[in-house]
Each structure stands twice: as C-alpha cells, then as structure tokens.
Amino acid sequence: MKIAIDAMGGDHGLSPIVEGSMQALKELDAELILVGQEDPIRAELDRLKWTDSRLTIQHASQTVEMHESPAQVARKKRDSSIWVATKMVKDGAADGVVSAGNTGATMVSAFFQLGMIKGVERPAICAMLPTLQGTAVMLDVGATVDCTARQLYQFGIMGHEYGKHLLGKANPRVGLLSIGEEDTKGNDMTKEAFRLLRESPLNFIGNLEGREVYSGNADVIVCDGFLGNVSLKISEGLADAMKKMLMREVMASRLGRLSFLFITGPLMRLRRRTDYAEFGGAPLLGVNGISMICHGRSSAKAIKNAILRAEALAKGRLIDLIQRDIAESLMTPTDPQMA
Amino acid sequence: MKIAIDAMGGDHGLSPIVEGSMQALKELDAELILVGQEDPIRAELDRLKWTDSRLTIQHASQTVEMHESPAQVARKKRDSSIWVATKMVKDGAADGVVSAGNTGATMVSAFFQLGMIKGVERPAICAMLPTLQGTAVMLDVGATVDCTARQLYQFGIMGHEYGKHLLGKANPRVGLLSIGEEDTKGNDMTKEAFRLLRESPLNFIGNLEGREVYSGNADVIVCDGFLGNVSLKISEGLADAMKKMLMREVMASRLGRLSFLFITGPLMRLRRRTDYAEFGGAPLLGVNGISMICHGRSSAKAIKNAILRAEALAKGRLIDLIQRDIAESLMTPTDPQMA
C-alpha cells in the first residue's frame, strides 16, 4: 500500500505532517509519499534524522492557502501539493491521499481527478462523533449542501459500508437526522428520504432527533451537508463554551478553586474522549478513490491516525463495496425513478 | 393585563402550572385565567389555599394529549384548554396565552384563531440560548420546517424586535446560521436570505458558523425551523452527554470521587445558567397575538417566567412593532418580489 500525503496543508506547517507520517510508519507496513516543496520537506526530514526509505518525497511547486477559493485549484494550481497528491491516486501511484489543507481544494481535487463512483450522485464527508455508547459516524458534514432525498439515501448506503468498516458491526443502525421520530416529521426532503431508506435493505432505525445524536442510538447518522456541518460546528462551539462556563464557575469560589486540583484529571480524560485527533481524518465518500480530509489544526497524532485509516480503507476495498451496494440499490425498484 | 393559561398542558400535571401562576401573581399586577377542567383546578387551588381573586378559572371540557395529532385540534377539540385559552386572546378576553402542552396544538390554535400579522408569511418559535456573553435568541426552532429566503428575512425582522425587547439592546446583532462566514457560503436558500438581510435596515452581521452560536457574537440567530430544531436538540443532547461523561470520569478514580464534593457547586450553577426554566417559554412570533410555548417538562418557575414574559410582551406591544417593521419592509424594494 502507498499513501500520498499533502505535506503543505494544515495550519501548523510541515512539522505535524512529517512527524505524523513518521509515527504512522512505525505501525504500518506501507510506503508514504510526502507531496510538496522538496527543499523544506527534506530539511524537516533531516532535522528529524529520518532515514527510512519507505518515506519518499514527490515535489510539487505550488501550495493552496486556507483562504483560497477551491475553484481556482483546478485551473491555476495543477502543480499544488493537494492536486498532485490526488493525481497520484488517479494514476495508480498511490492507494489513497491524506490532506489537512483547504477542505474545498481537497474536494475539488478529488472530484475532478478521481470522479465519482459509478451511480453515486454526490460526495459526502463522513465525520466521527463520540457518543455515550462509543462512536458514531455522521454524513454529510459539508461536501453537498443542497441535497435531494435520493442523495441522502445514497449517503445512507455509503455510511453503512464505512460504519461497518470503522465500527466493526455487521449491520450498523442507520438513522435519519430529523425533527421527530414519526415518519410524518421532517421537511419535504427528509420525508422522502425516510421512505427510500425504509424500503432499502439497510438497517434503518427511522428518524433520529437531535437529542439522540450523542446518545449512541444510531451508528450512522444521515443528513445533508448543510445540516451536518452546522451540527458539527455547534457541537464544537457548545463543548468549548461549556468547558469555559464550568471553569468560570470553578474559579468563582474558593471551594471551586480547590476542586480544580481534583477535576483536572477527569476533564483531561473527557477532552481526550471528544478529541478529533484521536479519530483522525474524515473520508470524502462517493469519489472513486480514498481521500481523507483532516482538520486544519491536526496534530501529528491526528495525521498518523488519518494515514492508518486511509491505509485500512484501501486495504478493505471500501470503494468496491460502495460501488457494489450502489449498483444493487439502482437495481432495486424502491423508487420509480431508481428502477 | 390578562393572561390565559392552558392549565391542562405539560408533562407534570396541574401542580406546576397552578403553582407557577400563583408565583407570577406575587410579582405581577395582572389577572390570570386558568383554562381547563374546573373541578381538578379548583381542587388544586383549594389544596394550595389560594384565595386571590385575580386568579380565575375558565372551564374547558377537553384536553389535548402530548401525542395527539395537532391537526385534530381545530376539528375535534374546540373545547380543549389550549383552543379555548387561545380563543380568549382572539376575543380580547386575554392579552396573551401560555401553554406547556402539545406544541403543535398550541401552534394550530394560534394559527387558526389569531391568524398571521399582516404581511408575515409564516410563524417562528423564538428560543433563548445561554452564550458566553449572556443570552441570544434563535428563530425558527420548529414552527416552519420548509422555508423560503424571504421567510428567513422576516424571521430576522421579528427576531430583531423580540431581541430588542428581551435583551434591552437598541440594535441587536442579527446573524444568519450557515456554514461559513463569506456571503458565498451556504445553501441556495441561505445565500438568497443573506442578500435580503444585507440590504435591509437590520444590524446584520452576516453568516454565523455553528461554532459562533454559543460564543455570543450574535444577539439574534436566524435559521429555518428544521435546522433550528435539530440545533437546539443536539445542544440539549450534547450538554447531557458531556455531563454524563464528566461524571463517569469523576467517578472512575478515587481522586475524582473526592473532587465530587467540590465540583457539585460549580456544576449546579452551570446547570442553572443553562436551564431552560430560568428563561421561561418561547414566543410563537408572527401570529397576531401573544402565544408562549413552554417545554412540556416545565417547572412552576418556568411557568412563572413564561407568564411574566407574556405580560411584558403584551405591555410592550410586540405585535404592533413587528407589524410596523414588516409593513416597512414590504415598502422597501430590497427584493423585486417585495416591492
């Protein structure tokens, strides 16, 4: 297995990406290709005294900044690290790509170069969430903001395969994020998606209210990219706000300040449980190749985990499994349009 | 001022509603009418040894259960407590109605009997959220699940007036819940709503990412009823899950268990800061009368606060202010359709 890594992406420069790659190689029998400007990458490898020949460099002269318009990448940045790294997957020179850079640019690179899996209409970013019962996946969290019911249904299929792979469950419970449990609840789009999912062979458990996202009642949570993205970011913001409010309360009284000594341990462990770095990147599902999107703020550990996951997804032939399921769904006349 | 109270609504029976009404009268120069089955209400008042003549009973023979279809209310439950209480507002016998019963039934009662404020297309439930800087309002959180851009714009106008009233700010900051700060980010509906809001006289601060909801960067957060409802319930679920995860961590070690003694105070104060009961109900804005929707689990304190707020909204002539702003917006040619 070979994984291409966008070395120029991420908010913290080269170091966490190079270090994460080195850490991954300690756990992995694979080749990693750092894609980006050769001189600074080589300098970083020298600094870290790295000699393992399984880590190579593929030069790419351009970079894509975080604020740049993704649309520009396909036209003006064809020698950028993310474009070149994705091209290696297209050309068969790599089995997957990992990037902590501009998310839009990563999506555009994958969409234009890898294309879609046959039959899949739109891509979906599949994030992981900690729940009271373990881990769940949610898709889409930002790739496709305007969805149709049929696309939501396809997200369910892709989430099913990814959930199976990730959670090790034979038949993951798929829920549709909505505003009430009854099938009559929802907006026009989710009501139609409910019908398609119910008639599918998926283990569909029905509508899922917002309250149930973190309870762990579902393994796979289906929603459009607009709702998913807002949901994820509200969760991040609320978790931060709650920690700050709790700390304010703790610090506001002498007894509270005393508790600080004791609560630091539990708070740190909670932080670890809800830390995205523990999870590593989120795959862009639906494109015809493995593309892992990492948080811009990714640590070396997050990069390492994303590389391990990309390798596992490639080895597990996730793309083939999704392609098979989608082909079957297109043969099943659950929807007159889909027959 | 006279406020009609749906005495038969809520998950905890009559007691919190009657007690909340009694508490409200201690702080309020107003008349309250408990609407519902006379015998049990009178028995409850006797039990609590209440004699103040400002609290009266209006008999209504029917009740609406929490699980009942709201659509039935208008047809088969015209002598239900919520229908009769809302009718009192319509007939001028009360200045506002408060209910902790079936939310859908409360909306249907208001929609059919009070009608809409002239020019307002759809109603919005306006919830309050605690933020790091104080309080914000969010609308819609569940009345209108399929929205147009123009309806979102009208929610901005209604939120502006309610935010002014509630937060005491001359010109509340209005933000549009979306997936990025730039005006090019969002789905088709929010991009069009962005344009309408930017060209309006509102203090529009642009798109608001999910992360910013609890930071307090905006006073009024505009979204459709589907997104708002999911957002609110995800927040409730995550707050619960975080408390549970923290408690598990605290209880998992001896040092942690020791901290329990010290952290109880701060946790209780945090709970109070984020407790919906402190806020009292959420108004159904857009209908032509004051209608306050309370959580089914409302405590006496939550009911009291909702009554105080209903009285304040009626006194502040919120309906007239919204009507004036909407009329002005219809005269301003920000949108060819609206000219």
Automatic annotation (TrEMBL), chains A, B:
Role played = Catalyzes the reversible formation of acyl-phosphate (acyl-PO(4)) from acyl-[acyl-carrier-protein] (acyl-ACP). This enzyme utilizes acyl-ACP as fatty acyl donor, but not acyl-CoA.
Member of which family? Belongs to the PlsX family.
Q: What is this protein called?
A: Phosphate acyltransferase
- Name the top EC class: transferase
Tell me the domain of life: Bacteria
In short, the EC number is: 2.3.1.274
Citing just one GO molecular function, the answer is:
phosphate:acyl-[acyl carrier protein] acyltransferase activity
What Pfam family is a match for this entry?
Answer: FA_synthesis
- Which residues lie in coiled coils? none
What pathway is this protein a component of? Lipid metabolism; phospholipid metabolism
Assembly description: Homodimer. Probably interacts with PlsY.
**Keywords assigned:** Acyltransferase, Cytoplasm, Lipid biosynthesis, Lipid metabolism, Phospholipid biosynthesis, Phospholipid metabolism, Transferase
State the compartments where it is located. Answer: Cytoplasm
**Which transformation does this protein catalyse, written as a reaction?**
a fatty acyl-[ACP] + phosphate = an acyl phosphate + holo-[ACP]
Record keyword Isomerase present: no
Q: Which organism is it from?
A: Candidatus Nitronereus thalassa
